[in-house]
Amino acid sequence: MAALLPSSFPFPHASFPNAKPHQLATPAATRPESPNAAPAPNPASARLRRLIAREDLAGAARLVERSASRDGEAPDVYLCTKLIRNLCRRGRTSDAARVLRAAEGSGSLVDVFAYNTLVAGYCRYGHLDAARRLIASMPVAPDAYTFFCRGGMVERAIQVLKQMAEHGCTANTTLCNIVINSICKQGRVDDAFKFLNNMGSYGCNPDTISYTTVLKGLCRAERWDDAKDLLKEMVRKNCPPNEVTFNTFICILCQKGLIEQAIMLIEQMSEHRCTVGVVTYNALVNGFCVQGHIDSALELFRSMPCKPNTITYTTLLTGLCNTERLDAAAELIAEMLRRDCPPNAVTFNVLVSFFCQKGFLEEAIELVEQMMEHGCTPNLITYNTLLDGITKDCSSEDALELLQGLVSKGVSPDVITFSSIIGVLSKEDRVEDAIQMFHVMQDIGMRPKAVVYNKILLGLCKRCEIDNAIDFFAYMVSNGCMPNESTYIILIEGLAHGGLLKEAQDLLNELCSRGVVSKNLIEEWH
């Protein structure tokens, strides 16, 4: 496959160096600053930016609070807002409130967006009284979004719409569209349709975005006839569908495998003076690939009247990898380079995933190294994919080196990252290290799921440390993590492996009678 590509193409070649995961941690070359770059930020802002990037939110909050008592070191309000948002996402609304007050005291010109962020955080966790108090104390004029957040729930938001005029904030179509989108996200398409028809009572009329949002909800619910009727209604009410409306409909049809209906809809686009562009063709290409019709996808790709983009190529590349047509995939990527359409991180991740799935770990590592050489930064998906490949080979040292590498590059590990590391440590009988990593995961604010607990339980049971396994199981339950069938199977097999066959059989029968594990498991044991 690689022989078909230019030598400069970032793809594994015939021979591979003995690359190790820690080599991926080598920082990319520092890019020179533009001569027209903006002035350097003040020291407080520079430090705050670094702390936020490292997700040291506690340190960032302390920095803002210290800045409140110093002249000339007011941190940038954008960074303060970003910190408030990150704190709210983790449920730390009290800390976020302190940051906001400290920003006010430091002399930063706190704008409505900072207040909106905290109001939204309060509402997300049901602290509606705190949200209302904050709105009442705002030194800047609240906007429509503030009032929407104040509601906390869709029903409350609709009530707030009626109150907005009393506060000198006129309802507009944009705000109503936010409400429609929220209703649709809850799967309440009929309520969204009703709200759409009642928008006039709030002093505004639906626009194309309003109709397109409801249309998307109808399509997600697979109510195709209702979606088609809504298109006709748009025309009747002098709000004709645009390219976004049609592409929304077409994309979902293709995702559901209804390609013929999608093609019929495309034929209607010209009637409404809508251009059939690359977004439309990408939807069709994806539809063919999802259905496994890769040849049809390639045929459509070759006949496209518009220039394909990276999404087009990446979609086709995914289809070719899924069907293991590697030579065609190599030709396609070479074509990308010839047509000045360089691969992006998503494109590379498709290839990295393919190589890892096939066990070609060295090739995957080589690809990531060359990915960086070509100015494409690996992301968390890239590293997690590599970790999955490494842990399948039971290489805990390489996995830990890769973890250190991704952290040094400013990439924050997630639950998947830790799950892979904990799994391979347990497999290699490094259960103490796995438990230590488990606690690191907890210390940075992550809540391990059952799959993570199960990996440690499995390691303990393989050691025949049944008492420790039972203690860890109790710890799992006390932390509010619901055991699943795999959890109980691990415990049952652990009891049996430890010579406690009667206890294992009794536990199995008890769990089966409660419907916790399937009856097929009992049959396997007899």
From TrEMBL:
Keywords: Repeat, Transit peptide. PPR repeats lie at residues 111-141, 172-206, 207-241, 242-276, 277-307, 309-343, 344-378, 379-413, 414-448, 449-483, 484-518. The keyword Nuclease does not apply. Pfam families: PPR_1 (PF12854), PPR_2 (PF13041). Residues 31-43 have a biased composition (Low complexity). Gene3D superfamilies: Tetratricopeptide repeat domain. Belongs to the PPR family. P subfamily. This is Pentatricopeptide repeat-containing protein.
